[in-house]
Specification:
206 residues; Rossmann fold; 13 strands; 22% helix
């Protein structure tokens, strides 16, 4: 289907807001509850909220196992992980004991501050995202780009060369990454109004 976006239903995320945003930018959201054949090169979103171990267990219980992800990546599908969905793409998380999908060379660490810094966890609210390396999702722009965050853990890549978006909350951290055809966003573009709309438009366009 032209301009269709497949949204993987993990059972632990509110996918209605993602679906509504996809409709708003002129594409058709297709909810996927179990593995099936995807059109070659199709675009896929993995949303998620909640606990890391629960997210991994939910994916595997529904048949989205390592074999599925390997086939998906090798066939050139474009994948965007959002919030917990981004973290599940990594190797591991301090939030749990389960192995991540391991598609990205990164681990997930808890956000921690000293008492003197007086910053609250989770990091919640609007924050500026500055573009990292050149990429099609968060382009270099003089205009300020702001997105909505809600998270207690952050992605720490082995190599900063995959970071396409940086944010600052008591120090800079990876707000978005790209490794070949795999993208991740720690923020919620579906809750980020015009900034999120533009991001989804770019994801659909490339």
């Amino acid at each position: 289907m032209v301009n269709s976006i497949h949204i993987i239903d993990t059972g632990i995320s509110n996918i209605s807001s993602v679906s509504n945003m996809i409709k708003k930018v002129g594409a058709t959201p297709l909810l996927c509850h179990e593995p099936k054949d995807f059109p070659l090169g199709s675009k896929i979103i993995l949303p998620g909220v909640g606990h890391f171990d629960q997210g991994i267990a939910s994916l595997f219980d529904r048949g989205f196992d390592n074999n599925f992800w390997e086939i998906l990546v090798n066939k050139g599908h474009y994948l965007l992980g959002i919030c917990l969905g981004m973290q599940l793409l990594c190797r591991s998380s301090e939030e749990g004991t389960s192995k991540g999908l391991g598609l990205i060379e990164a681990d997930v660490k808890k956000i921690e501050f000293t008492q003197e810094e007086n910053l609250k966890v989770p990091h919640m609210g609007w924050n500026i995202v500055s573009p990292g390396v050149e990429n099609p999702l968060i382009p270099n722009s003089e205009a300020e780009q702001r997105f909505y965050f809600v998270h207690t853990y952050k992605v720490v890549p082995d190599n900063d060369n995959i970071v396409i978006g940086w944010a600052n909350y008591g120090g800079v951290f990876c707000a978005a990454f790209q490794q070949n055809n795999i993208f991740g966003a720690q923020f919620h573009p579906e809750k980020s109004h015009q900034f999120g709309i533009e991001l989804f438009k770019r994801f659909i366009a490339f």
